[in-house]
Specification:
By secondary structure, the protein is mainly β. It has no helices and 11 strands.
């Protein structure tokens, strides 16, 4: 089982920055990818950014050029640096981890509890 601990959410003015972090722990054999999804009130959950263990990244078009995802493989931790924040970035941001566990043959997907990001105009 994988436990994800998120931190870094909060309230910021438009144009400001926040940095989210997510640390994975538990019965992890190897991590395939980690990242962030977000869900705003009344909207579907959407991918924000993903990073693979090899360092490949993918971003939602709406955050390209403003957000940067990075990872520390040794610490099973992923970071999301969010710059030039806009009110439309307001959402609950949830950490995502896809990993092989020490038991089992197939990768397992885990989610964090979510952290609120609020951007005021």
């Amino acid at each position: 089982q994988v436990h994800l601990v998120e931190s870094g959410g909060g309230l910021v003015e438009a144009g400001g920055s926040l940095r989210l972090s997510c640390a994975a722990s538990g019965s992890i054999s190897s991590i395939n990818k980690m990242g962030w999804y977000r869900q705003a009130p009344g909207k579907q959950r959407e991918l924000v950014a993903i990073i693979t263990s090899g360092g490949s990244t993918d971003y939602a078009d709406s955050v390209k050029g403003r957000f940067t995802i990075s990872g520390d493989n040794a610490k099973n931790t992923v970071f999301l640096q969010m710059n030039s924040l806009k009110p439309e970035d307001t959402a609950v941001y949830s950490c995502y981890c896809n990993a092989y566990l020490t038991s089992g043959f197939y990768p397992s997907t885990s989610w964090g509890q979510g952290t609120q990001v609020t951007v005021s105009s």
